[in-house]
Amino acid sequence: GRMNHALQNYEAAKQTYDMVPLQMIRDPEFDIRCKYDVTLINLNIASIRSKKGDLHEAISCYEDGVQGLREYEAALSELQKDPFRAPDTGKNTAHKHLIAALGRIGSLKLKIGDNDGALKAYMTLLEEVKDDSPSASQTEKAKAHIKCATIYRQQDSPDSHAQSIAHLREALDMYTAIFGPDHKDTSAIASSLRQWLAEDQQ
């Protein structure tokens, strides 16, 4: 159907970029832009594969996307060192894509039963979101704390319950700051935290 058609279009677009003549890529800014476009294509392919249920393929495409976004951010910061260059606002958009992709990798790895892989993706996401990151990324970070809390809660290692409580406290602080103390999600997290603390005291 339409999804297969979209997938074919994205794959074709990706091949077009792969065939760009080398002399055109001599311009470093053009090269960076091309690679960024290919990365966005990868993320779109990942999204379609995920909807089609090809979870392993989707994870692989998201991981390619994350790698591409990291390279783009690094290349962009190199270009920024040029004092005559106008500042680029693309970094924020790329950063939002990076955080969202890490979140998708985490949730897809949970779906295939790879809890350790999911935890690694979520922990990476937590490190990537800084105080000055956009609000959409802050919300992703708050959600990632809940996911980490849930994964740790299901583990049997000696400090896993302490880790789960720590992540849930972080989530509660962030949800309270972002959505307010009376929001239904904030209340649900507060309720879970009380329950977990009561369980751990028994």
Summary?
The protein is mostly helical. It contains eight helices and no strands.
H/E element order: HHHHHHHH
Number of helices: 8
Q: Give the N-to-C terminal Cα separation.
A: 55 Å
- Cα Rg: 20 Å
For the sheet with most strands, the description reads:
none
Poorly predicted segments: none
Q: Structural class, judged by helices and strands? A: mainly alpha
Number of strands: 0
Oligomeric state: single chain
* Average predicted confidence as pLDDT: 88
Beta-strand percentage range: under 5%
Q: Which geometry do the CA atoms define?
A: globular
Task: Please estimate the helix content.
Answer: over 70%
Describe the overall structure.
The N and C termini lie far apart (55 Å). The protein contains eight helices and no strands. Helix 3 packs antiparallel against helix 4 and helix 4 runs parallel beside helix 6. With 202 residues, the protein is mostly helical. The chain is globular, with a radius of gyration of 20 Å.
